User: Fold this.
Amino acid sequence: MTLAIKSKLFQEIIEGLQANPASISPKFFYDELGSSLFQAITHLEEYYPTRVERGIMQSKLAQITEAIAAIDVIVEIGAGNCEKVRPLLDSILPKQYRALDISLEFLETSLANLHHDYPAIDMQAIAADITQELLFPDLQDQKILFFYPGSSIGNFTPPEALRLFSNLARECHGSGGLLIGVDLVKDIQVLERAYNDSLGVTAAFNLNALRHLNHLIGSNFSIPDWEHYAFFNQTLDRIEMHLRAQSDQLVSWPGGHRQFHVGEMIHTENSYKYSKATFRKMLQEAGFTKVTTWTDLESSFLVCFAGFK
Ligand code: AVI
Assistant:
């Protein structure tokens, strides 16, 4: 990481910690341990999105492949362990695969494993902050399939999601498209259980943000003094994750500090849940002219291909 990026991140973290209410961007969940904890979450019984999305991708693969048609390159956004793209590599056979993620350490190992199994596909790991604009000038003449599985789009606000879709639609130049998975609004108990699992993995994932911050900015958060808190906000259709102070405490870092009172919260993540109609409308508003959707039997999760007529 360059010094300029480090100081920008430092500034962003301090601004969040000084805000009222305090916040930490969910991108700070994903150091090496956080990425592993997230992988563990995806194996939990209570956390249905990964499992249900995989089921849709498997059972509808022929239809999905037909909708996508021929493309040259798959660009996966938030690629993580690079495992979700395997069925697409098998069915579409692209010439190139680009994996984008915030944490390059984890991504490079994942990509090396994938490349071992698909040596004929040209592969590249790219560290990218997708809250910033994405540009692919060297892919201008290629048919791109943007692949954004895992419902990570839910971690953006709807206006941010729309901005990202518009960015991707523009980079498609009228061909290819976006294959994306998104979690749907459902029974509140099912939603809240997914973010309050009985093994406490989600709690560890949330608390690990403090450990990561201690490492990044030299703060002295005492992890046992905080607890995980997650609930579904029915007005805004989103799961909110927070860290709640269990005692009065002073948290310091080089050049600053903040007093937290017992019960005070740090907002760490939103996970928006959509209806099929709202999500389709957003993709169309962003410039995609043809949207095809697939869901599971319980209409729990949605996979969409947004392309062009
Ligand atoms: C990465 N993202 C889609 C997950 C979600 O469900 O919003 C992150 C997560 N947070 C808690 N559990 C999983």
Observations:
- The pocket of N,N-dimethyl-L-histidine is lined by residues 41, 49, 150-152, 154-155, 195, 202, 205, 269, 271 (CB under 6 Å).
- The first helix runs from residue 3 to 18.
